[in-house]
Amino acid sequence: MDHFSVDSMIALDFPKVSVEREISKVYEEFGHTSAYVYVVDKDGLLVGLLDQSAMIQAGTDENLQKPAGELMCKAPKCLASGSTLEEAVSYFSAHQITEVPVIDEAGRMIGLLKVWPLLDYQASKLKMIDSELNESKRLTATLEAVIENPYEGLVVVDENSRVIIINNFYLEAIGITREQALGRHIRELTPHSELPDIVRTGKAQFVDYWKVRDRDFMIIRAPIKRDGKTIGAMGKTLFKDMGLAHVFARKLAQMENDLKFYKEELRKIHSATYTFEDIVGEDIKMTSTIYLAKRVARASSTVLLTGESGTGKELFAHAIHNDGARRYSPFIKVNCAAIPEQLLESELFGYAEGAFTGACKGGKPGKFELANHGTIFLDEIGDMSLTMQAKLLRVIQEREIERVGGTQTFKIDVRIITATNRKLDIMVQEGMFREDLFYRLNVIVLELPCLRERPSDIRLLANYMLTKLKQKLETGVKGISQESMQLLQNYSWPGNVRELESVLEQVMNIVDEPFILPEHLPARIPHSKTAAEETQSMEKGRFEEGVKCAEKELLVDALKRSKGNKSQAAKILGIHRSVMYKKLRKHGLGGMTLSQEY
Ligand SMILES: Nc1ncnc2c1ncn2[C@@H]1O[C@H](COP(=O)(O)OP(=O)(O)OP(=O)(O)O)[C@@H](O)[C@H]1O
């Protein structure tokens, strides 16, 4: 006989559908990888091989057309007519036989489907069942350990609120045995249980208080659902006892505190620290600048602060912001000289997501965005490149920004305060600063006087800083000798107030004596006397200074204790009122009020 395929089976009145169905059943049963089906013709010759894609590859296999006597040797007669493949497979597998006859409608066997290797399949199926069993045993053991953990109570009820799982912790808490609990309605065990409500509503209750037999617990209750339907509920204690709950609550409170602290720190970073109260100065140049600054603080106009380094430009920027309507909004400082040119643009205007390699997801807001509704303080504006000046000009004119690499523009409402110690007008002439930007920034100009122009403020500032440093450094230094003060006033202070601050801090760190004397001052502050004169007068001067300072300190102390009452202060010191007044005049304390610092 010729080779035959599914089509040739049709020619033999064997319906194609039926063959395909039978074949697919074999595959379904044995899996595509574990079974092969051979088709043998009625003369016992192998005529087809069904591979994994269920094709009859007639004529393509070298085994085709070979006698299949040995394959058929086990074919039972009882199956020779009309059994379905399913019946055949189950019969064969029970008898460890791996062949199925193909029969025609008259019940004649026209071929044979040989299923191979059925035995391997059975063995692997058994192995699989065995490993599934082991896995589920392992899982059950783990679940039991979880359920029986000694730190938490657990009870599970079914859809009728009957207990199906309960752990020892829970049993112990309510004081009954497992046998007494299983299968009972939960309210028979704990009359006020809310689990039936959870089963009814299907809604969880997160964290509730549960008191049982004089013990307090925190508990959560949750529904158990399958295919969206509530099939039970579980109650679980959260802590072994309330002691642990309190530990947890304390930790939570600590974390909340920390969070508050960091939020406050962040707020401080984005807010102005100083106010006009922190600006010390009595010199007319200074007081008129403060007066003007206070006036401009109320408006939103752009301010340009000029003056030598260390004259207090940043201090003024803070004070102006803090005195105006924007005081509760951010104060953002940008040091234009400290940020590399290529980063300044994204620092000021932010960048969009994917603007460059390494850009943060979601992009990053720039300082202008952060300062929205508040103030941006652009320090060292004179150090900004011409390219950046053009970009800044656009923002000032349009009052809108676009993130680097972005397409959207944002409207911004920001007050701009700039500062520089460079001469912007000269820079404009030299082509180093854009003229149009200069006029945009030069709306209100506050020129801060340098320290050498206001020597009277040196004494004031030095005493003010001494008081602050005494607290900070906890030193025994009580004051500055008159002679030292004179030297400080004679000095030119190129670094202005910042330099004065650092000289005092440096001196107070090394001086062990109560008063800062000329020899304690750094060498760059010129001493008016020659070294010989100094040595001579030093001993005398030191004693006199000491006495003078001590006397002054006693006077100040007595006045403080008498709350400014001079007669009372005289009594405290045991001196006559007239002597008291004389000494007060000598030390310049005649008009002393309590708020003054000496
Ligand atoms: N009038 C003042 N009263 C009290 N402290 C002052 C005064 N002026 C300046 N200071 C202090 O001096 C230091 C320098 O001030 P600030 O940084 O404001 O100066 P600046 O002009 O901005 O300096 P730069 O140009 O170098 O940035 C700060 O510690 C500041 O608190």
TrEMBL record:
Protein origin, superkingdom: Bacteria
GO annotation terms (biological process): regulation of DNA-templated transcription
InterPro entries named in the record: AAA+_ATPase (IPR003593), AAA_lid_NorR (IPR058031), CBS_dom (IPR000644), CBS_dom_sf (IPR046342), Homeodomain-like_sf (IPR009057), HTH_Fis (IPR002197), P-loop_NTPase (IPR027417), PAS (IPR000014)
Any Pfam family matching the protein: AAA_lid_14
Residue ranges constituting the PAS domain according to the UniProt record: 139-189
Coiled-coil residue windows: 245-272
UniProt GO molecular function: ATP binding; sequence-specific DNA binding
Keywords: ATP-binding, CBS domain, Coiled coil, Nucleotide-binding, Transcription, Transcription regulation
Domain CBS: from-to ranges: 72-128
Boundaries of every Sigma-54 factor interaction domain copy: 279-509
Matches recorded under NCBIfam families: sensory_box (TIGR00229)
Name of this protein: PAS domain S-box
